[in-house]
Specification:
The complex is a heterodimer of chains A (145) and B (485).
Chain A (H helix, E strand, L loop, with lengths): L1 H19 L4 H21 L24 H32 L44
Chain B lengths: L1 H20 L4 H27 L4 E4 L10 E4 L1 H20 L14 H17 L3 H20 L4 H32 L4 H7 L5 H19 L7 H5 L5 H26 L5 H24 L3 H21 L3 H32 L10 H4 L1 H15 L5 H15 L3 H27 L16 H19 L2 H13 L4
Antiparallel strand pairs in B: 1-2
Helix pairs in contact in B: 1-2, 1-4, 2-3, 3-4, 3-10, 3-13, 3-18, 4-5, 4-10, 5-6, 6-8, 8-10, 10-12, 10-13, 11-12, 11-17, 12-13, 12-16, 12-17, 13-15, 13-16, 13-18, 13-19, 15-17, 15-18, 16-18
The chains are: A mainly alpha (145), B mainly alpha (485).
Amino acid sequence: MIWLLALTVWITTSAGVYLALSRDVFRCVFGLGILGSAVILALFASGRLGSVQPAVIPLGETVLRDAANPLPQALALTAIVIGFALICFSLVLALRLIQRADTDDSVALRMSEPIPTDPVKPPYNGAEHEPALPTTATPTPGGAA
Amino acid sequence: MTWLAATPVLVPLATVVATALAHKNPRLQSALSYLGVVAFLLCMLALVAAAHQGQPAQTVFGDWGVPYGIEFYVDRLSASMLLITAIMGLACLVFMASDADTAEPRHPLLLPLLHGVLVGVAGSFATADLFNLYVWFEVMLVSAMGLFALGGRVDQLDATFKYFVLNIFGTLMLLMAVGMVYAATGHLNYSALAQAAPYLSDWMSILLVTGLLLAFLIKAGAFPLFAWLPSSYHTLPAPVLALFAGLLTKVGVYAVLRTAGDIFAGSPDLIYEALGWIAAATMLFGVLGAAYHWDMRRILAFHIISQIGYILLGVALASQAGNAATLFYTLHHIIVKANLFLIAAIIWRLSGDYDLRKIGGLYKVKPLLGLLFLIPALSLVGIPPLSGFWSKVLVLQEALAQGQYVWTFVALLVSVLTLYSMVKIWMEAFWKPHPDKNWALPHNTRLAPAYAATLGLAALTLLISLNPQPLIEYAQAAALSLGAR
């Protein structure tokens, strides 16, 4: 059983990482969602798989016997709720981003980066401080016009 | 006094609810917001006082016993971080009343989300439960993303997406690591974990601590996963940016210190060795990134990364003196960094741009602003007698005592390059004439609250600078209780 779960986690993680590395913004979000599910499955296994009995103490007894460990279930539930909220937010975010930016290619999404053509050089500080440039234009290599 | 330990979360959470309910009335919202932050500050002062007397506030929710219930435990380390959180919240709120890059008119959800960030940050500092820490990280992340996306400009959405992807990856790694820690030890509570840690085999403890540290290092903006920070922070309005710059990465740093310096304090040397090299690389690449840019906010954002390197170096030294230096450095750095961002916003208001190539001439018309800038700027570099000097002395003294000459050399080199960046801002924004011949100071600015906030933070820096001994003693006392559960 644990090996089956391990295999599931492995496949889910691979799928999630593969999608998250995609250039497509939506695939990236879906990939992170799937990765989240893989992590939750792993979290579930942290309490050991054994019993399938619910973690409820029978009437008249004070000790929980032969039941599944309730703590990982609680952790997984919390993580599912948080993950669900985050995925909802990120889907709306991705939708808005694609609408506003007119592209879903994450390589083309460079709105918050410096402009690539921005020459990183010291500012213009008056003509007298500029170095003297050669008057003749240097020929371009290869002789192109 | 058990209720006191829950105030770091309860007070800002109540403020979130109150400000959200008052979203239709901006004045009421501001008033409630101030009320909440001042109450928060007073509670944190009480927590610091309690922790300093050696009676850390503690509460376990739901009447469960200590290792089973979710525990809040505010020792000296947590208490000082909580106090600085409250101070930052107040400074940010005061600054917001000015018109220096504060994205007016204010969005009705700005204040609730801002307090939401405070809830997440304070919860992470106060909790003593690993899974609970993950929950507070998520609270912080959700509120922060809300603040990023609030403006709705396309560059802000792009920044939100970048912030989201790398940070969600970090929290997923954290969740995975928490699962592995629980599977290996059967505990999530810090003290119970600290007691269980010595019984782990070497490779198991390397695996667990590496998993946790990787997640926290992404959050802290350490090399090589810091790309999210400089590409997103500059799209925020200035007061929010200052709050984020001061606090968010420091939560990651705090978690690193808690993990490597406290809970798993006796981890194999390999972890600390690796952390030291990561710290050195973080310092170096952060400062090199800053040297490239001309936008003040980008320069300062890269300096966050570079300073994170110094702080991590303190953790990597794995000694009491190293941990004390880390705490001292973190507290000094939060104040200085937030102040620099706020002053950059004042410069923007007066001279019209964040790009250093397009501004100048401020020293001629506002010489005292130059002085105000120099206090945090030179403190960041580490010029004596400012607070940055003392924190660097503490870290490097310990590094030299342990014979880590390479790391010390990198740290000193990075100091020089930091000086280069600060001098660049000084020369360009203050010293050189304004490139636009017709430029004049703008009239009808509303900068009094901005000056109040920055002067307050500068006064705090000077206080630490001229009288560092009480804070150093506090940090040493805090380090003494780390790793000794």
